[in-house]
Amino acid sequence: MSDKEALLIIDYTNDFVADDGTLTLGKPAQACEPKILELANQFYAADQFVILPTDVHRKGDQYHPETKLFPPHNQRNTWGRELFGELKPWYQEHQKNENVWLMDKTRYSSFVGTDLDLRLRERNVKTLHLVGVSSDICVLHTTISAYNLGYHVIIHENSVASFTDANQAFALNHMKTALGAEIVK
Asked: Could you list the residue range(s) of the whole structural domain that residue 166 is in?
């Protein structure tokens, strides 16, 4: 079996991207949409994997550590947790393909508390392409986990966003210099 690659579209939901999302990154995140869709179409056409690790919370969950840090967001069965913009219909159109799936995650890293590593290894995936939000939180923590698990990571810098320019610069630099991620346009 030859090595495969996977595109991870991390947390690209209304709460993180839409103007009226409860924890929105706003315009910088919205500017990523065309490139994210382009990459999703490229990976799909090449019979590679498109995975959508998506943050999910329960209303009033006093045991989740994020409740002390952020306002309620990405709660199950809400508009805020729905995929943003044209990604929602893209996913609806392609979700029946076994190489495309949305997965719940409850921590910053797409690997923590999920079966993502197992599913990637079963499919002989060695290289991960990361896009989405937030560069300095969920994308960064996913990169840390991927690094520790031995994956080659490629960050598409025009397809990730943070809350501030300083956070974006820090995250990209850290992923490149401390985690060996390849940064591409």
From this structure: 4-184
